[in-house]
Write a structure and sequence with these properties.
Elements (H helix, E strand, L loop, with lengths): L4 E6 L3 H9 L6 E7 L3 H11 L2 E3 L1 H6 L5 E4 L6 H10 L3 E4 L7 H14 L3 E3 L7 H11 L6 E9 L19 H5 L1 H12 L2 E9 L4 E3 L9 E3 L5 E8 L4 E7 L10 E5 L3 E4 L10 E3 L4 E2 L25 H12 L7 H20 L3 E2 L12 H7 L2
Parallel strand pairs: 1-2, 1-4, 2-3, 4-5, 5-6, 7-12
Antiparallel strand pairs: 7-13, 8-11, 8-17, 9-10, 11-12, 13-14, 14-15, 15-16
Helix pairs in contact: 4-5, 5-10, 6-8, 8-10
Length: 375
């Protein structure tokens, strides 16, 4: 029987509400407390969701907390995750896991020494549509994946985000902020990445905020905002990745994977659901019947989307008890960080860079396995 592990959330910004509202969908986890360096933010979030507000030190020391969910800003992920491990807690981090291979390696070493688990978002690749794409690839419906494209492009976040500064600083930008969704999904669909090359640019070094409450202020830009990369996978596939916050409009698909027997048009890996399209060698073809995945069901009526954030956290909690690898594991997360930081470095040096890490593809999460995670 699955036991319930106590979860504490560190960082009470916007994303904490998603974890707090969606965690009750799953077995194995119960969010019991929240903490933030801003005590008022922690108190407000605690009152909103009827959980306990703690200081940061109090959360780390709490006996009823088994897992810390690290929702701090990206450049604080390393220090706070290390502190949680040193406090004897398992850690599940928001993306990006860390900002360098060196940081990730230190976390891996400490977690191994302590016998603790480390996991990381994104878990959107566990969504029903992305797992259906994985099933079609694994069952040979489109043959061997030989190439593909992936694009995530917009005109930035300063038009809607209340405090967009950190998105334009080192540690963010479109590769490290949105790239984890795309690269992690490519890893689970195709496998690990062998080498990368890239070109990057920063068309504007200042960006005008038009969102409230800071409309009229400027954001300083100190990281590339347009990145075009080539990814070579260990299986031989080559994928073009385009990420930009300098594009008003485009007509690229989110993700297209070209196989020896057909093509998959994969929806935005930033989300759990969407429409998957498959072709054979000549035309669109019907998807096989019988794919009834619970993480495809629309449950966010405001945005008309399937949203199952915390699925990766629940899978980790249950995997701890079952003694099996969890799917959103640190090997996958660290490989993705290695790929993303290598892309940025390749953009600076104009070199083709070998990726020093690798990982196993996470175990697929079919419909029955997904249902087994749900309360």
């Amino acid at each position: 029987m699955v036991q319930t592990l106590g979860v504490g959330i560190l960082g009470c910004g916007n994303i904490s509400a998603a974890y707090l509202s969606l965690a009750p969908l799953f077995k194995g986890i119960e969010i019991r407390a929240v903490a933030d360096i801003n005590a008022e933010a922690a108190s407000a979030r605690a009152a909103e969701f009827d959980v306990r507000a703690e200081t940061v030190d109090g959360l780390m020391a709490a006996d009823d907390i088994d897992i810390i969910v690290n929702l701090t800003i990206p450049n604080a992920h390393f220090d706070t995750s290390m502190a949680a491990l040193n406090a004897g807690k398992h850690v599940y981090s928001e993306k990006p896991f860390v900002l360098s291979l060196e940081e990730g390696s230190k976390i891996a070493a400490l977690s191994a020494e302590k016998g603790l688990r480390v996991g990381s978002a994104p878990d959107t690749f566990l969504g029903g549509v992305h797992q259906q794409a994985r099933h079609l690839i694994d069952s040979g419906k489109v043959g061997e994946i030989t190439s593909g494209t992936a694009h995530v492009m917009s005109f930035g976040l300063e038009h809607w985000h209340p405090n967009p500064d950190f998105f334009f600083q080192p540690g963010a930008g479109p590769v490290l902020d949105i790239g984890p969704y795309y690269i992690t999904n490519l890893i689970q669909l195709i496998g690990p990445i062998k080498r990368v090359s890239a070109m990057t640019s920063t068309p504007r070094t200042k960006r005008l905020i038009s969102s409230q409450p800071r409309a009229g202020e400027y954001v300083e830009v100190s990281t590339p905002t347009t990145i075009h990369a080539l990814l070579e996978f260990h299986n031989g596939a080559v994928v073009t990745l385009g990420t930009s916050w300098d594009v008003f409009s485009h007509n690229h698909g989110n993700m297209e994977l070209y196989g020896s027997e057909g093509t998959l048009y994969v929806p935005d890996p930033n989300f759990f659901g969407g429409d998957l399209v498959m072709t054979d060698k000549t035309e669109e073809t019907d998807l096989p019947d019988g794919w009834d995945h619970p993480f495809s069901v629309i449950n966010d009526m405001d945005d008309n989307r399937a949203n199952y954030r915390a699925a990766g956290l629940a899978d980790m909690a249950i995997a701890i008890q079952e003694g099996r690898p969890h799917r959103c594991n640190q090997e996958v997360a660290l490989h993705a960080v290695d790929v993303m930081t290598s892309i940025l470095k390749a953009g600076e040096t104009r070199e083709v860079l070998e990726i020093s890490t690798t990982c196993e593809r996470p175990e697929a999460l079919g419909p029955e396995a997904a249902r087994a995670l749900m309360a």
